[in-house]
Design a protein that fits this description.
Peptidase, Zincin_1_sf, about 35% helix, globular, about 15% strand, 5 helices, about 150 residues
């Protein structure tokens, strides 16, 4: 009597094949294939908006202790780009501060920040610089005093 074939061979160890990063869009291929720890495959793609939102969230998490100490409530929002009036001839702003009920609202503009950076590291540095500058304005502190990175 022949045995029934199983659901298929199980994959153990490193997955076969080469990971590829075609055209700078992130890894494709073996990282996203199903395996014993991720039967449906692992999502490897995040769009640029999600990556920027995650970066801002990480920076705000590291600045969390300041939000607890300061009396002014600050809300941080992210928008793609500012709406500028016709004939605008100054550099595009990277952020603005607006009064909000009970405090302030800082709006970061994703496209102007990313457009001024040459690498992911520069994007992170610009997000830190913009947030620290705006929080320093709101809380009347030197931005360097707020920076937990040292």
């Amino acid at each position: 009597m022949a045995s029934e074939p199983g659901p298929g061979p199980e994959v153990h160890g490193p997955r076969p094949g080469a990971a590829r990063d075609r055209r700078g869009r992130g890894p494709r291929g073996v990282l996203s294939l199903p395996g014993p720890l991720s039967p449906r495959g692992a999502p490897v793609h995040r769009n640029p908006r999600e990556a920027f939102d995650d970066l801002v969230s990480d920076v705000l998490t590291r600045l969390d202790r300041h939000f607890d100490r300061e009396p002014d409530h600050v809300e941080v929002a992210i928008e793609e780009a500012p709406l500028l009036p016709p004939g605008w001839d100054e550099p595009v702003p990277r952020s603005i501060v607006n009064p909000a009920p009970g405090g302030y609202r800082i709006v970061l503009y994703r496209l102007p920040i990313i457009g001024r950076a040459r690498s992911a590291g520069e994007v992170e540095d610009l997000v830190w610089a913009v947030l620290l500058t705006r929080l320093g304005e709101v809380w009347h502190h030197d931005p360097e005093d707020l920076d937990p990175r040292g």
